[in-house]
Amino acid sequence: MAVDPFAQFKAMQRESWARFAPLATSTTPAAASLVEFADIRAGERVLDVACGTGVVAVTAARRGARVRGLDLSPVLLEEARHNAALIAAEIDFIEGDVEALPYDDASFDVVLSQFGHMFAPRPEVAVSEILRVLKPGGRIAFSTWPPELMIGRMFALTATYLPPPAGVAPPPAWGDVNVIRQRLGESVRDLRFHRDEMRVPALSPQHYRAWMEATAGPLIKLVQTLADQPQRLAQFRGEFEALSGQFFQRNFVRQSYLMTQAVKR
Ligand SMILES: C[S@@+](CC[C@H](N)C(=O)[O-])C[C@H]1O[C@@H](n2cnc3c(N)ncnc32)[C@H](O)[C@@H]1O
């Protein structure tokens, strides 16, 4: 079996995303937008890649789709199973990696990913796997963070304090339409985009920073790393609050995102 050169990075991701569940209150409305944008229909075989607590999977199942979900984090998958059980939805959630999908070729009508596949270290591997499990004429649809907006800039700021390992692609590049065109390439047709906005409640930029530090994987990891460098941590926090202050308005932070849909040739 091939050795995964990014195994250590993925083990770190698995651990750092484990406290994400409370943040899924913010991704819940966005899941409805993605499922609508992808035009999910009853009976379709749908895969939710990097499903987290299953917000997209459960939303698709409520439309009558036959859904499976996959994520690195066993903690979040437990939450996803609980979410599915509450509406008696039969969704097969399994632990796995978007770069090595444990499904047969052409086994899905639609593959969805909400702020998920963008964390795979090698976009070309993730794209090849997603397209492999999609049937010809099937749809791929995903939501990602543009590099110039709140979360894209948060990732860039985080990377200045904690650079990713060599060879790991920056997640917000997935929010750039030109990069998306190039990555999906000639394997797809009918590429289309739509922007939407998530409003995250917060009493202040400081509250938002504390909330994100408690729940968002990359920030959890950064705070752990800077634990014995209080001045650097304070500097990061000041910069993060200044950034989020630009998107803060009437007790929420605006997190705009991009949705992409394409059809596999
Ligand atoms: C921001 S969360 C989004 C979760 C969910 N899709 C939602 O919208 O609420 C990112 C998710 O990507 C998962 N993830 C990161 N890298 C992954 C990989 N290589 N394969 C599968 N899942 C991955 C994390 O475990 C985490 O659940």
Description:
The chain has 265 residues and is an alpha/beta fold. The protein has a single domain, classed as Vaccinia Virus protein VP39 (Rossmann fold). The chain has 10 helices and 8 strands. Strands 1, 2, 3, 4, 5, 6, 7 and 8 form an 8-stranded mixed beta sheet that branches. β7 and β8 form a beta hairpin. α1 packs across α9, α6 runs antiparallel to α10 and α8 crosses α9. The longest helix has 16 residues. The two termini are 30 Å apart. 41% of the residues are buried. The model has no long low-confidence stretch (mean pLDDT 97). S-adenosylmethionine binds next to α1, α2 and α3. The site of S-adenosylmethionine has 24 residues, from α1, α2 and α3.
Average pLDDT figure: 97
CATH class: Alpha Beta
Uncertain regions spanning at least 5 consecutive residues: none
**From the 3D coordinates, which CATH architecture would you assign?**
3-Layer(aba) Sandwich
